[in-house]
Structures are given as structure tokens and as C-alpha cells.
Amino acid sequence: MKPPEDPVPVHHDDSWGPLPPRSTFSLLTRFVLTVLLLPLWWALIVVLFLCFIPVVIVAEIFTVIPGFEKGFAGLVDKFGGGVKAWPAWCVTLPELRHEGDAAFYRARVDKRIDSWTAKELAAQKAEKAPPPGPHDIPVRAYRGVGAGHVVEAARARGWELSHDRPSDPLRVVRLRRLPVTD
Predict the structure, then answer these.
(1) 3-state DSSP call for residue 112?
(2) Tens digits of per-residue pLDDT, 38-95?
(3) Which of 39, 52, 73, 95 reaches 20 to 30 Å from 106, CA-CA?
(4) Which class for 27: exposed (0-12), middle (13-18), buried (19 or more C-beta within 10 A)?
(5) Residue 54 domain-assigned?
(6) Does residue 147 belong to any structural domain of this protein?
(7) Which domain of life is it from (predicted)?
């Protein structure tokens, strides 16, 4: 008889474990590039947003065409989902100082999940809709402990991996709150 399969193969795949520490030279280079290029990146995002406003105003005229609004909304969602305020190439000062420090990354993950849990519980207590999910934790928050730790910490607080949008342990872990049973 075949044993039951683990619903999340966290322990069977090395990609769910901690990522190897990056070299000091690589981190310093990325940090310098972050300091120099990130403000330009943010300025570019603002300029694109400001240029997008007239396009949206003109597109509003075309909403009388059936299906246009749905297609345009899909385009906007794709564009907005692709533009990240913190690109994958940037390295912040805390990341530079704590590369390879598992306790630092464990605290980052725990703080983020605790924050989401508090918001969910506050919404539940106030009988309001919870914040929309799934909630993403990027690799920059868990690289020293691995995506497996994120899943374990999340499960301990009533979360699970999102089924709507799959996680990629080398880039992002997507979580959703388990339904509350009364």
C-alpha cells in the first residue's frame, strides 16, 4: 500500500531550504547599484504612472465598446503586477549586514506573518471582510531560512500555501488564511 503524500513537498525539495549566502563582493556591488539606481527606478515608475493617467482618461471613452473595459482592466493588472517597487536585483542595508543570519530572516518572516494574522483577526472581530489575499512573501524576506520555514511558520498561525496562485520557493511564497470554523 502506498503511503499518503505530503500536501506540500517542503522537505523533499532543496529549493524550499535556505539559499546559499551571496558573496560579499556581489552584495556590495548590488548595494551600490541599489543606492544609485533605485531612486531612478522609482522616478521612472512615477513618470509611467503620470503618463498612464491620460491614457486611462482616453480609454474611458472607449468603454462603450463591449468587452473593452474587461480587456483594458486585464492589461492594467498585468502591467501593475509586473512593476515592482523593490526589484529583485536590489540589496538593502539590512540585507547587506545580515546576509546568512538565519535569526534575522526568521524574525522578518515571523513579523510579516504576525502582522497579517493580526489584521485578519481584527477584521474577523469587527465582522468585516479580511484583507484580500493571497499574501506574498518575497525571497528577500526569507532567503536565510528558506521557503520551508515560511510554510511552517505560517501553518503554526493558521495559514497555508495559496492554491489560486502557486508559490515559487526561489522567488516568492504565496499564503492564504485558512477558513475559520466556528
Answers:
(1) helix
(2) 999 999 999 988 988 888 888 888 877 888 888 888 877 777 777 888 888 899 999 9
(3) 39
(4) middle
(5) yes
(6) yes
(7) Bacteria
Of 159, 141, 153, 160, residue with least CA distance to 102:
141
Q: pTM of this prediction?
A: 0.73
What total number of domains does the chain contain? 2
pLDDT level of residue 3 (50, 70, 90 thresholds): very low
- Do the strands 135-138 and 159-161 form a parallel or antiparallel pair, or are they unpaired? unpaired
**CA-based R_g, the chain, Å:** 20
* Residue 89: inside a domain: no
158 neighbors 117 (Cβ within 8 angstroms): yes
Range(s) of the domain holding residue 75: 24-82
In-domain check, residue 56: yes
